[in-house]
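Take a look at the protein record below and flag anything odd:
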Amino acid sequence: MTAAAATAPAPAPELHQPKRALIAVVEVVLVVLLAFAAHWCWQRGIQRFSYPVEGRPPLVSTRYHGNWIGGSIALATVAGILVLDAIRQTLLAVRTRDRRPPEDVAQTTDELV
């Protein structure tokens, strides 16, 4: 290893990357698909039964299947996390940094105060 390679500073990661907008769009599409899947799982998790009784209204019973309800909640949770990440990706894709050096920004801030 040479001394020049050891002292070279690592490039700073760039936050403003327009390709993040594409990632946000893909995440929004996934959120829509996950929402449909969560609704489908929820509907499969609830079963209603009706038992006829002479001279009275029918007895209605509801059965809940925990595996389908739990799957629905898990899908909705993942969709919620993807919504938050899509917002983050969009902000990082759109947000731009000030082109002036930091000392100019500090002087401008001092002038405003």
